[in-house]
Every structure is written in structure tokens, then in C-alpha cells.
Design a protein that fits this description.
The complex is a heterodimer of chains A (110) and B (120). Chain A has 110 residues and is mainly beta. Chain A has one helix and nine strands, in the order E-E-H-E-E-E-E-E-E-E. Chain B is 0% helix and 46% strand. Chain B has no helices and ten strands. Chain B is globular. The chains are: A mainly beta (110), B mainly beta (120). At the A-B interface, strand 7 and strand 8 of A face strand 5 of B.
Amino acid sequence: QAGLTQPPSVSSGLRQTATLTCTGTINDIGSRGAAWLQQRQGHPPRVLSYRNNRRPSGIPERFSASWTGNTASLTITGLQSEDEGDYYCSAWDTSLTYVLFGGGTKLTVL
Amino acid sequence: QVRLEQSGPEMKKPGDSVNVSCKTSGYIFSTYGINWVRQAPGQGLEWMGWISPYTGNRNYAQKFEGRVAMTTETSTSTVYMELRGLRFDDTAVYYCVRGGPHSDTWADYWGQGTRVNVSS
């Protein structure tokens, strides 16, 4: 049950765009897509995008997700200081018996 | 509205067991699975397993097999997670998370977290 792979850190400027990536295998992301979670310091994670790339209500359109092959991506446009935090991807495996998480990417807004 | 309310912080010694509860409300209990996810200090998220309140089926991460047990109490819409044989590296915040493998909205609601500290 190896985890998903995310870069440890990404930085981009205020009002710029950041793209976070998450790489898995055909047995997880490649088959089932990935959900994206944001965690601000001291808070539980919250979901930004479901595995079908749809946003929950209340999540701004600035957050958009996609996946191609075994890689999922989260693009954040018009970066704001409040977007700083840790971002995690997650996916169920094709057997639907366990969940994988990425190690998380720390986003810094310069 | 949907709420997942977890039990309070726990202080335990190595070898102890801990039982964390997650009381749900605002939706039909049987229609969504509940997962347990933990986060050690300064670390990432780790999935421990999930249980279906509808079928009682459960799957645990290999790492926790034999040490974890997840149960449900339908009368109170509560899910419990027991972790046995606690070790120092079980110190973490434990979250319950709504959603099962067939749910398109997996992880849409999280409990507030329960801090478990294992110390001698």
C-alpha cells in the first residue's frame, strides 16, 4: 500500500497561479481519480475537489482539479494569502479496500 | 446540518488501549461509511480503515490489522475506533471522516479531531 507522490513544497506569488501534482498508479488514480484536501494550520482538512473533479459547495472556482493517466493536478488561480497551507491528494485503490494519501504539499504564497 | 462530533483528548501509556467515538448527525447514518484518519505531529495524513454502518463491513489498513477495531452503534449514530497496544508513535490527532469507496463525495465531512497522547 505505497502512498501517492506529491512535491513537498510549491510557492507562487500573490494573485498568481499554482499547480500541485499527485502521482499514483493505474491501480488508484489511474482508475479512480483523486480527491484534494486543504489543511490550514491547526484545523482539520477540508475537501476542495472530489475524485470526479467536482467542487463541494462553497469552494471557489479558483480551485480546479483534473487528472490524466496516473497523475492528478490541482490548479489554484488568483492566489490569496489564505490559500497557504498543506494540500493532500487521496485516492481509493481499485479493489475499494483502502485509501492512499499523498505526503502533502506545503503551498507558500509569496 | 451534517456534524461529526468526536470525543475528547486522551492521555495513555504504552500498551494501553484507546477508544475514540464519532457521533454523527444531520444525515441518515446508514447511508455513508465512516473512515478513521490520523495525523502524527508535524506529519501527513494516514488512513486507518473504514466501516459501513449499513452492512457492518470494514476494511483496515494493513499496518493496523490486529490492533484496530471499528464498530457502530446505530441507536446513537455513533462510530467507535479502538486502538490497542498503544505505542509512542501512536501519538496523533485522530479524525473520523465521512464517505465510503463508492461515494463520489468521500471526505466531505470531518470530525474536529481527537488528540491521543501516548507517554510514559
